[in-house]
Write a sequence for this structure.
């Protein structure tokens, strides 16, 4: 019975995705009419729809023209800060201080002659996308129509100034976006959950665990016994247990929030390369500041290796320092993003088969096929959410373990004075 | 071209993960008492192989 209920819940979640998409459908249709006047022949743009769903946004889109606004904090050199809620843009119909909302993302009009303050653009579709050619490659370009004139948009900004994606922009977006909101939510939820568990440990001392405690204790023990203890070692694991636990549960909660298609979820947090970059950077810093002399010794001068090999080996080891956290970053980002793309593509089948609303039979077929596969994919994604959190924490633990590992000092000291063979023989004799 | 590259990468990763799965089931069948350790090693290796395929996916997305 419980299993049936859970399956029903999952099915509901997946159909939530369908409805969320369907609600957006009229908007797409308008958009299509809009772009058809600009000579585009694309009826339904699956790639664009998928990309806009997996990217970050300045509002939680619900359906049609309903969305939950989020705080906007923008800074442009020379103009200063602009504060407000994202509903001040009226879904793209209003420009504020030269900023407009383009598919949920705040963009800035690149042209300095565009008027400041609140500007009514007189149309819901004043902001639209087109493509232009740069060096033989097609690039997206946003345009704003205002009083018959078209203004070009800057690419959406990221906190890194556009180094990881989005291009170098003329403004900085410090807004609480969907991703930021979900990260706050996950962090607060973790503090609340673990705070309650801490209290119940104090209350139930010496007694059997109760409530949330019994749900999380096995996971905690699993992380300790299967991840930190074997990877970092009996001696040091207690120092790193809190960090590995934080990594595991933060990634897990963000992954699970990403699977919920409506409001508190729907943000693709761990599928955002900037987020995974920060997580991997933390692992990189913690690994290297805790590295002991054996760790650095193995990087710069691998013991027991001829001198000339070190010329090749040391650069490779130094590269390895960067590649390890880099692969952590890519693995989490690509796994979660790929999962979301698959689900959105399956849902997109409804509109591909339905010919964007003109073929009802095809649409229903697509919905049934896509919906069934989506329910299946959601179950796989549930597994991936746990698996990727586990993989990230176990690999982070193994990198830290390699950095803090104590070697047998006795053997090492002898290896310096003598040739390899005799040092080994002596070590055997000593033991 | 990106799609073809991603396909080839998936092929390689598929062979890799398949071999990991086959060998680890074999190992568990030989020594059921070591199944816990084998499973952990299997998951880590699978993640590493999968990482290579995902690099290709990212390159495919960018290209």
């Amino acid at each position: 019975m419980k299993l049936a209920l859970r399956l029903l819940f999952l099915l509901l979640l997946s159909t939530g995705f369908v409805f969320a998409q369907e609600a957006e459908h009229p908007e797409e249709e308008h958009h299509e009419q809009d772009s058809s006047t600009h000579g585009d022949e694309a009826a339904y743009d699956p790639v664009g729809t998928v990309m806009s769903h997996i990217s970050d946004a300045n509002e939680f889109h619900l359906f049609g023209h309903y969305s939950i606004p989020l705080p906007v904090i923008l800074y442009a050199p020379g103009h200063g800060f602009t504060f407000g809620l994202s509903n001040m843009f009226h879904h793209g119909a209003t420009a504020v201080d030269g900023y407009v909302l383009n598919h949920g993302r705040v963009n800035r009009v690149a042209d300095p002659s565009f008027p400041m303050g609140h500007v009514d653009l007189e149309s819901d579709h004043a902001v639209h996308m087109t493509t232009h050619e740069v060096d033989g490659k097609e690039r997206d370009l946003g345009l704003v129509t205002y009083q018959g004139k078209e203004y070009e948009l800057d690419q959406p900004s990221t906190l890194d100034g556009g180094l990881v994606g989005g291009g170098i922009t003329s403004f900085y977006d410090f807004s609480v976006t969907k991703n930021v909101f979900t990260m706050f939510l996950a962090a607060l939820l973790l503090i609340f959950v673990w705070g309650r568990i801490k209290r119940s440990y104090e209350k139930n001392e010496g007694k059997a665990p109760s409530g949330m405690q019994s749900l999380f204790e096995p996971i905690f023990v699993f992380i300790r016994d299967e991840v930190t203890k074997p990877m970092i070692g009996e001696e040091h694991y207690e120092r790193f247990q809190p960090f590995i636990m934080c990594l595991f549960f933060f990634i897990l909660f963000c992954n699970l929030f990403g699977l919920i298609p409506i409001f508190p979820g729907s943000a693709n947090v761990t599928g955002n390369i900037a987020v995974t970059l920060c997580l991997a950077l933390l692992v990189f810093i913690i690994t290297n500041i805790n590295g002991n002399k054996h760790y650095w010794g193995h990087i710069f001068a691998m013991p027991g290796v001829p001198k000339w090999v070190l010329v090749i080996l040391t650069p490779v080891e130094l590269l390895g320092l960067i590649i390890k956290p880099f692969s952590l970053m890519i693995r989490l980002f690509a796994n979660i993003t790929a999962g979301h793309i698959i689900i959105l593509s399956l849902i997109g089948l409804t509109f591909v088969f339905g010919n964007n609303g003109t073929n009802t039979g095809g649409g229903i077929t697509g919905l049934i096929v896509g919906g069934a596969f989506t329910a299946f994919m959601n179950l796989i994604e549930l597994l991936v959410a746990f698996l990727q959190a586990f993989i990230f924490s176990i690999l982070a633990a193994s990198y830290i373990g390699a950095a803090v590992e104590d070697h047998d000092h006795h053997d090492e000291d002898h290896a310096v004075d003598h040739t390899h063979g005799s040092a080994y023989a002596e070590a055997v004799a000593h033991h | 071209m990106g799609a073809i590259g991603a396909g080839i990468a998936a092929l390689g990763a598929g062979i890799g993960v398949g071999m990991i799965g086959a060998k680890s089931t074999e190992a568990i069948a030989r020594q059921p008492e070591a199944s816990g350790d084998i499973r952990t090693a299997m998951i880590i290796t699978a993640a590493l192989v999968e990482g290579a395929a995902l690099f290709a996916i990212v390159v495919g997305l960018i290209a």
About this structure: Chain B has a mean pLDDT of 85. The interface with chain A takes residues 36, 40, 43-44, 47, 50-51, 54-55, 57-58 of chain B (CB under 8 Å). The radius of gyration of chain B is 14 Å.
